[in-house]
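stage 2 :: seqdesign
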């Protein structure tokens, strides 16, 4: 299966996930309200932060080692043993602090948190091995299953009066089914753990634990966690709504990152740096092709999006929405660079960039949330993301001698600006007071952007090359 085909399958699955997830998200936010919905968000945040201790990049290390030629069955068995060993003390700690944890989240959820942690951690390994078999495209169905099951089961239970517990139960059912389906698809047998694979995984994971575990989880949940400490669950819910809206722009970049990792790992092993450079150039152009115009769109339509889709109580996060959309534009580039650096077996560079960015993220969130509320959280996360991107970019240029496609990205900014000017002029004539009008304006903006971008010949040529590779 070609890279482009795999990217297409993963992207399609992620788009389906986003559509279904977003519809469910709107329903849950409206049905439960910002306060109760915020409790579920804090449960997710706790689950995400606990994963830092349950899986210090063991899964990432197993994927890299297996895809680069080490005995996959022994890697699989060793990784499972390592994960199981880490879960035992973690569960003991959760039980010990169950009282404060329940009080922080807002409900009696300790047992559910333990079950979710076990299922999520042990159930993720078959999918890791599936990607290591270079069958990345086949994981698309796993993504769809998780999202569909969570949305359907959660919606039914919420309607039956389970409240935020309905969303948690739906999540448990979804991750369990995803794990069972991955286990069925995976062809790698569970081999005997070995000392050689143990140290191989540890040597890789000791860098990736910072870059690919600490970074994603802290970037995703530090702001929400600190908002939960200083502010109310209602503001947690409003902030999460803004975060989920802007997360849509990372569908394509995430699909690309997941797909290219094992391929770049193989090219790096064969010293095919020219192939890596060519692929990275096209990938960077692709990952910002959505996030840049989306930022300009939210800049103009942010209030309307929150008010018409989620309800008036969520418009408190309109400025947060704008800031975070800018953050996602940067994050799309940063995450791509991080995946390439990791695949080339330079995890120490990811670790350095992440330590700096994560430390800055935590410190700024504590200071700015306390001072400026949810807007401070958005600013803190954005600044930390920019710093991490700049550091990774510098490291990659050193080892790959790579030139960034500045002109192509610059033209996307120009095209987005032109689109924004036209939409702003239309807003002085048309009052956007209904969902159909909002959708119409958004679709018009997409058309304008595509037309303006296509006037730049190098971008047209890149698009043609990509389309020719689709099989």
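stage 2 :: out
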């Amino acid at each position: 299966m070609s890279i482009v085909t795999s990217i297409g399958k993963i992207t399609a699955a992620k788009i389906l996930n986003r559509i279904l997830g977003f519809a469910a998200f709107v329903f849950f936010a409206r049905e439960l309200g910002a306060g109760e919905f915020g409790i579920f968000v804090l449960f997710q945040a706790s689950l995400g932060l606990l994963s830092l201790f349950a899986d210090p990049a063991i899964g990432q290390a197993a994927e890299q080692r297996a895809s680069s030629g080490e005995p996959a069955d022994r890697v699989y068995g060793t990784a499972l043993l390592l994960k199981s060993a880490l879960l035992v003390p973690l569960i003991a700690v959760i039980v010990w602090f169950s009282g404060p944890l329940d009080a922080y989240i807002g409900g009696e959820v300790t047992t559910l948190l333990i079950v979710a942690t076990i299922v999520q951690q042990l159930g993720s390994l078959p999918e890791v091995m599936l990607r290591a078999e270079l069958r990345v495209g086949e994981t698309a169905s796993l993504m769809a299953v998780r999202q569909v099951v969570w949305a359907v089961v959660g919606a039914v239970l919420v309607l039956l009066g389970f409240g935020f517990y309905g969303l948690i139960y739906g999540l448990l059912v979804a991750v369990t089914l995803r794990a069972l389906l991955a286990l069925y698809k995976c062809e790698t047998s569970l081999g005997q753990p070995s000392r050689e694979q143990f140290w191989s995984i540890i040597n890789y994971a000791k860098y990736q634990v910072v870059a690919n575990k600490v970074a994603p989880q802290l970037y995703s949940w530090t702001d929400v966690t600190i908002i939960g400490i200083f502010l109310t669950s209602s503001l947690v819910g409003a902030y999460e709504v803004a975060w989920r809206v802007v997360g849509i722009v990372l569908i394509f970049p995430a699909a690309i990152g997941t797909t290219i990792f094992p391929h770049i790992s193989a090219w790096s092993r064969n010293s095919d740096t020219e192939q890596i450079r060519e692929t990275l150039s096209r990938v960077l152009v692709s990952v910002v092709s959505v996030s840049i115009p989306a930022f300009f769109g939210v800049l103009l339509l942010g209030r309307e999006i929150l008010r018409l889709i989620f309800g008036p109580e969520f418009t408190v996060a309109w400025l947060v929405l704008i800031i975070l959309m800018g953050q996602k534009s940067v994050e799309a580039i940063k995450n791509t660079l991080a995946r390439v650096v990791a695949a080339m077996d330079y995890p120490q560079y990811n670790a350095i960039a992440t330590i700096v960015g994560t430390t800055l993220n935590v410190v700024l969130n504590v200071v700015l949330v306390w001072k400026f509320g949810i807007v401070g959280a958005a600013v803190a996360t954005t600044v930390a993301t920019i710093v991490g991107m700049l550091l990774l970019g510098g490291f990659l240029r050193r080892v790959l001698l790579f030139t960034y496609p500045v002109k192509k990205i610059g033209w996307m900014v120009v095209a987005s600006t032109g689109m924004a000017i036209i939409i702003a002029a239309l807003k002085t004539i048309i009052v956007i007071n209904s969902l159909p009008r909002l959708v119409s304006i958004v679709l018009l903006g997409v058309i304008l952007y595509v037309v303006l971008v296509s006037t730049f010949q190098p971008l047209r040529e890149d698009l043609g090359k990509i389309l020719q590779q689709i099989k």
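stage 3 :: structure notes
- The chain is about 85% helix and 0% strand.
- The longest helix spans residues 3-54.
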